[in-house]
Amino acid sequence: MPSTIDERLLELGLELPGPYFPHEPLDSVIVHGDTCRTSGQLPRNLEGVIVNPGTLGNELTVEQGFEAARWSALNALSVLKAELGSLDRIERVMTLLGFVACVPGFAQQPAVIDGASRLLVEVLGDAGRHTRSAIGVSALPRGGAVEIEVEVALKP
């Protein structure tokens, strides 16, 4: 694995979007002691446009939701980097909370949120492994198909 997370992102051909910050009075990231937690991150691309807006089980496929979840994880890394100065301060991803906009009866939320989980492991290696919940909801802000929150432990 490369010596820095920025080098790993380059190796993977990934660029962090944003960071896109929430409206007032919210913070995109809170650091408390040796933990850090993001606000909900939507799947915005490099231009700030929502990737694959819509509802899973209606107009979107699991593959499109998986891609949206990857973008949401990139956005989480982006706000973490803005707050921490370097992603190398992350010791471990503790948990990922994933929301999927879906129709009633849709039961593939875990397959969708796998996009975010796998991206975190690709970028951070074993430090990207985490606990997770994948929850179906009727709608998400700005028509996003996915929204995630990430909590990380910081290096001492």
Which SSEs are present, and which pair or pack?
Blueprint: H1 5-12, E1 29-32, E2 35-38, H2 62-84, E3 90-101, H3 109-124, E4 131-137, E5 146-154
Parallel strand pairs: 3-4
Antiparallel strand pairs: 1-2, 2-5, 3-5
Give the rounded overall mean pLDDT: 96
Strand content: 15-25%
From the alpha-carbon coordinates, what is the Rg to the nearest angstrom?
15 Å
H/E series: HEEHEHEE
- By CATH reckoning, the class would read Alpha Beta
Instruction: Give the % helix.
Output: 25-40%
Q: Low-confidence parts, pLDDT < 50 over ≥5 residues?
A: none
CATH fourth-tier homologous superfamily: RutC-like
What is the level-2 CATH architecture name? Answer: 2-Layer Sandwich
Tell me the span between the first and last alpha carbons: 21 Å
Overall body shape: globular
Tell me the CATH topology.
Answer: 60s Ribosomal Protein L30, Chain: A
Number of strands: 5
Number of helices: 3
Strand arrangement across the biggest beta sheet: 1-2-5-3-4
Question: How many domains make up the 3D coordinates?
Answer: 1
Q: Can you summarize the main beta sheet?
A: 5 strands, mixed
Describe the structure.
- The chain contains three helices and five strands; from the N terminus they run αββαβαββ.
- By secondary structure, it is of the alpha+beta class.
- It has a single domain (28-154), classed as 60s Ribosomal Protein L30, Chain: A.
- The protein has a five-stranded mixed beta sheet with strand order 1-2-5-3-4, covered by helices on one side.
- Helix 3 links the parallel strand 3 (90-101) and strand 4.
- The radius of gyration is 15 Å and the shape is globular.
